[in-house]
Amino acid sequence: IAKAQNVGIEYALNNKFDFVVFVDDDSNLTAEKINQLLANYEVLGKRGNNIAAFCAYPSERGGLDQKRNSILGDSLLLTNNLMSSGSLTRTEVFKHIGLFDEKLFIDFVDYEWGWRALAKKYLIVIDSSVQFEHSLGQGRLGNGLGVPSPVRHFYQTRNLLWILRLQYVPTLWKLKQLFLFPIRFVYFGFIHEQSKERRAYFLKGLAAGFKNKF
């Protein structure tokens, strides 16, 4: 996923496009919504220069945290965790922050880039006036916990071990993941359907993560 995104970003840079828009296959972001998002971004003028990602408001927010920022506008929210789908970024920003980390392949790719941007004093902004449909994983349990496909446990586990070592990743997020990981492992690895297959992917992810095998 990261590689495919980088190919698109490099194409945009080489052809001097002003913006890159990201839309996952499980998101429904119409051209009208994109134009609305772009128009709202341009209203900010120079205040938008330090925005790394200007994001529409997803129906499924997953791990997104958010807080209001009246300085930018009543409908604009700041977040520390980037979900790239439904977002637009000025191509110039990638020259300062860099591209997505391809070794992560899929899980935490947008989070890691967003934290890198925050470390360089950029903002991640959600425009709550532009909303779109977005689904996460293969469903959600009653407590809101996302249900990934079995193989995703490998990438999530391997990548988590790498992400935890990065200094610019928020400490509170790291502590939360350290608390949640054993819960996820026990539930998905021993209780949920396909538990044997899921457990095997968890263990493979742990082995790869500790060995730095990407």
Automatic annotation (TrEMBL):
Transferase among keywords: yes
Domain of life: Bacteria
Alphabetized GO MF terms: transferase activity
Keywords noted in UniProt: Transferase
Gene3D superfamilies (alphabetical): Spore Coat Polysaccharide Biosynthesis Protein SpsA, Chain A
Name used for this protein in its record: Glycosyl transferase 2 family protein
Organism: Salmonella enterica
